[in-house]
Design brief:
alpha/beta, globular, four-stranded mixed sheet, 10 helices
């Protein structure tokens, strides 16, 4: 129930089947100073890794530029990050990948419950996604530098979530269209809340159940408002770091290669940090008094059912995207 499954193979096949079908253009010019944005707090391991990444870029790629990191969406709102990079308002941004769902269904694949539930499968999924992701992003003047996963997603609540019916009528924190779909399938009301706003949302009773990683559980101090942590480990979503494509294209070839090498290094570092986060942060949750619960078979079965429905919807949305964005072949075309 936790492992690799046939739905995963469907996404891999879809990715490799589309790579020669897209084109792109970009706008923007060089900027000095250079702005880097993240919607997450500076203590988050993603942002720590991002800061080290831009320090390396400052030293080895842009020694004459001043690269400045703005965490906690202090420069641009999370939802506006892609457009801000495209127009060169900012040059680099970290984004939760599923937030780019309107561009193409491929961006939501890693948030489908029980599609990729361990780091090996998550890495294979990213390897199958990456080229198609960049083909789609190129049409928006942007490219992906690297992606780093969050630890597996789990539930925070004040009630025991013994089955899917326990979600009925509850307000479930959402962070993407995919999670909103899951909430609806479970009979819950999805409420979009950014990580930085979780404490205030719980205090105001805007949400009853939170789905997030142990990393965010600690940074948001969720023990202040919830008592139970249910370890479903159902999916491993990713953050993606974007750069203005014109900025990259304007680099000399050796600088481009250096940038990509640095990006690969910090992607690997980020994955290592993510793997270490789960045990460390779950230990803190327990120390702060949260009850850590293993999922019941009934809950896993209900989440699996939701995941299967969402995967079917994902395939349908993929076909719809193809019909809208690819040339229609005439009967005589081969």
């Amino acid at each position: 129930m936790y492992g690799f499954n046939g739905r995963f193979l469907g996404i891999v096949s879809f990715c490799f089947g589309l790579l020669n079908s897209l084109g792109g253009h970009s706008v923007a010019v060089h900027a000095n100073p250079m702005i880097v944005s993240s919607p997450y707090s500076k203590e988050t391991f993603h942002v720590v890794n991002l800061q080290n990444f831009i320090n390396a870029l400052q030293k080895e790629v842009w020694p004459n530029n001043d690269l400045s990191l703005y965490p906690s969406a202090s420069r641009v709102p999370h939802a506006d990050s892609l457009e801000a990079v495209r127009t060169n308002e900012i040059q680099i941004a970290e984004v939760f990948m599923s937030r780019l769902n309107e561009l193409h269904p491929i961006f939501t694949a890693d948030s489908i419950p029980f599609l990729a539930t361990n780091y090996e499968d998550a890495a294979a999924l990213w390897a199958s996604q990456k080229n198609l992701v960049n083909e789609v992003l190129a049409d928006h003047g942007v490219m992906a530098l690297y992606a780093v996963p969050w630890p597996a997603q789990n539930f925070y609540s004040n009630i025991e979530l013994s089955a899917g019916e326990k979600f009925s009528g509850k307000k479930l924190r959402s962070y993407s269209a995919t999670i909103s779909s899951m909430a609806t399938l479970l009979g819950a009301e999805p409420v979009l809340v950014e990580a930085k706003d979780l404490d205030a949302a719980l205090a105001a009773k805007q949400v009853d159940i939170v789905v997030t990683s142990p990393s965010t559980g600690v940074s948001a101090r969720l023990w202040k408002h919830t008592t139970k942590y249910t370890k479903v480990g159902g999916w491993i979503p990713k953050n993606i770091v974007l750069i203005n494509k014109r900025l990259f294209d304007d680099l000399e070839s050796d600088q481009q290669q250096k940038l990509l090498e640095i990006a690969q290094e910090y992607e690997q570092r980020g994955w290592t940090l993510s793997k270490k986060e789960t045990a460390e942060k779950e230990s803190i949750l327990q120390e702060m008094g949260m009850t850590v619960l293993e999922p019941t078979e009934a809950l896993l079965a209900d989440l699996n059912d939701a995941g299967a429905t969402m995967f079917d919807d994902w395939r349908k949305s993929s076909r719809s995207w193809l019909q809208k964005n690819l040339p229609v072949k005439n009967d005589g075309d081969n």
